[in-house]
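Long-time lurker. I teach an intro course on protein structure, and each term I like to show students one example going from raw sequence to a predicted 3D structure in token notation. This year I'd like something fresh instead of my usual example. Would anyone be willing to generate the tokens for the chain below so I can use it in lecture? Attribution to the forum is fine with me.
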Amino acid sequence: MNLPNSPPYHIQCVLGADSMEEPLKRLENFKLSGVVEKIECPFLMVHGEEDAQVSLAEAKTCFNAVGSKDKTLRIFTAAEGGSQHCQNDRLGVALPYMHDWLAEKLKA
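-- Reply from a regular --
Happy to contribute to a lecture. Here you go:
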């Protein structure tokens, strides 16, 4: 299979599937619904505003469902960098932020 490694085809390429329906069927049980609500520890979600694989709306829905009372959503913008999936366009801005957040939480 020779598919472009772009967001619509990414999961298909990763799982070596012949159609988009196949990976979606395989991943039906891999959902965060019912799990994130149980998270009680401090929680950090970082997301890029231009993420082409997970929409900002989906990220916000997931974040809002997290059960922790101490939760942070950090959205990286195109202007600062880190706006792509997993902040791959500028990890240098995302990693220090995550490190500082974790250091703050562990200090308590």
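Some talking points for your students: Residues 36 and 49 are 21 Å apart (CA to CA). The longest strand covers residues 43-48.
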